Amino acid sequence: MYKQNSLFKNYFNLSNRRYIGNKQKLLNWIFENIEKECKNIEIFSDIFAGTGVVSLEAIKRYKKIIINDFLYSNNIIYKAFFYQEEFDIDKLQKLVEYFNKLNPKNLEDNYFSNYYGDKYFSYDSAKIIGFVRDYIEKIELNQKEYAILIASLIYSIDKIANTVGHYDAYFKKTKIEDKFFMKLIQPIKTTKKIEIYKNDANFLAKEIKTDIVYIDPPYNSRQYSRFYHLLENLVKWDKPKLYGVALKPEPENISDYCKVSAKNKLDELVSDIDTKYIALSYNNTYKSKSKSSQNKISLDEIKEILNKKGSTKIYKIDYQQFTTGKTDFENHQEYLFITKVKK
Fold this sequence. Notes:
Elements: E1 11-12, H1 27-37, E2 43-46, H2 53-59, E3 64-68, H3 72-82, H4 89-100, H5 111-116, H6 123-138, H7 143-158, E4 184-185, E5 193-197, H8 201-205, E6 212-215, H9 224-227, H10 229-236, H11 262-272, E7 277-283, H12 299-307, E8 310-318, E9 333-341
């Protein structure tokens, strides 16, 4: 990694996000079991990568990493942290200093403030966010610099959003504090080979060859593209019309793993992937009070699917995952299935 210095006095690390299903606290457990069961691994594929923290840990251990997620916001974050291209840190730091000195009273209303102001953010913070996003499109940047600025904006607004940690709803307040302050992310410097994709995982499974694939699909009916619609909108920046109280665009990137077809999609993915080992994460949220939080595939069904591919071992651990306050249940456990694929 880049050394911390005055230019990175205040920076965001990859794990500094509020994100449902984040595996940060389970990394040691996941990789201890993978390395116990899986030998001679050089290529690690993370095809539902989410925050990217599993891939970051894999970079420390393996020669090549394949990282994939079909959300625009996650993909730009991977490019910002992992894509290996030179960038002008002085230029980026000066831009951030300029953004942090903006006076919202001197800015015009914009797409972001008109929709999200006094809802997900204060109106003045939303005006600045919209101005910054427009400004990034107008200046000369290489691919890495562009990704760093967008990712830094995502991380910065995630810290001040008037939400419980996602964007399915916002708190109803009469006054939202002006909190906008932008900080840069700290990119990862590595000599390892990294391939970054934004594909449907089932499609990608047909295209790649790997030593181990880590599968961490959505567990329930909650669509990530709808939970993080505001971040998706911020990254794409095509300024669509928004609908409903939560101000969402038309549906896009809807996962079949959140539907009744989840079992069949997993069966298809496991069948198609060319790999020596499979590691799959899931949990036991079958009796959640919230129906939308109940799992779509049973543990027995997962085991049955994996056993068709090879011999499978199952590990489990007690774990209280990040929730949004409506999905509390007792005896929560995370499961890790590890399959040695038949030759």
